[in-house]
Amino acid sequence: MGAYIFRRLLLMIPTLLGIMVLNFAVIQFLPGGPIEQKLAELEGMGDAFANISGGSADFEIEATGTAATSAYPGAQGIDPKYIEELEIRYGFDKPPLERFLIMMWDYIRFDFGESWSRKISVVDLVLEKMPVSITLGLWSTLIAYCISIPLGIKKAVRDGTSFDTWTSGMIIVAYAVPGFLFAILLIVLFAGGSYFSIFPLRGLTSSNWEQLSPIGKALDYLWHITLPVLASTISAFATLSLLTKNSFLDEIKKQYVVTARAKGLGERRVLYGHVFRNAMLIVISGFPALFISVFFGGSLIIETLFSLDGLGRMGYEATLNRDYPVVFATLYVFSLMGLLVGIITDITYIFIDPRIDFESRG
């Protein structure tokens, strides 16, 4: 097992490098980079040009001819020296290959720099958004497993009955409904939309959260997260239910189950003493991957609907603002964690079923 893990760790290096190279190359061709956005912002600032150029407000007209040859759209009327300062500030005074190598060297040392738009370190920015992602990821995953596993087992035991038919229909509908549409429905029904005003619409806590008792804080927190967690759980719940059912059906038909029943073991003993461990192999081992996918793939629309400032909105805003330190740092960290989760998933397989031996492959 140690040799297998070592090979997987070595394979992570070219995989991560390929992800970063591909995304860095694509970014170079996107219009509207950080310098262009800064120039567009200055274009509407009127007399602010006087402060930039060090001259009068008439500098815009006087310098138009000088800056006309600039490579940046919207640079007319801007002092070329100021554009050079912007290039140095954002690192665009260096060729793309050198910028990429510097960035990767910093990332290897886990130095992610500072956000261009927020003027704080990328690590502090991510930590600031982390509570929302932890809330949605952890609770959504736990609820999905707590509901899906018992439901999937019952569907497998009662396969072909009316219960199985009706629940399958409900699961298919739940899977087909987008999470954001379900979120809107929850808001309309329970958050003061058109019917009931039971749950709050904004944030993770109330304005008086600091003054509440520990129990009051816990209840207030649960009160706020109920609707967004339900909205983000629906698709994972549907997938896990059908996966659990199919896993149990495959195991129930195997010879060792027939033998156990022939020996006179009760149905409950057969189901939970023999079938459960083998059937839950694929379901339980997928827990790390599911949690990471919900944790770091937070729905932008759900976060926006419930005014939750999480990693989803952070990534979207960073992309719009061309905040490359945030974009590439989060891409690097999330890709690294995704690759590590793949290894953790394989290790989980072995813990659940020691018969699995990755070393014997090849």
UniProtKB/TrEMBL annotation:
TM region(s), chain numbering: 9-30, 132-151, 172-201, 221-244, 279-306, 326-352
Family matches, as Gene3D superfamilies: MetI-like (1.10.3720.10)
Subcellular location: Cell membrane
SUPFAM superfamilies in the cross-refs: MetI-like
Topology in the lipid bilayer: Multi-pass membrane protein
Keyword Transmembrane helix set for record: yes
Pfam families tied to this protein: BPD_transp_1 (PF00528)
Family matches, as InterPro entries: MetI-like (IPR000515), MetI-like_sf (IPR035906)
Boundaries of every ABC transmembrane type-1 domain copy: 130-345
Record flagged with keyword Membrane: yes
Similarity field: Belongs to the binding-protein-dependent transport system permease family.
Protein name: Microcin C ABC transporter permease YejB
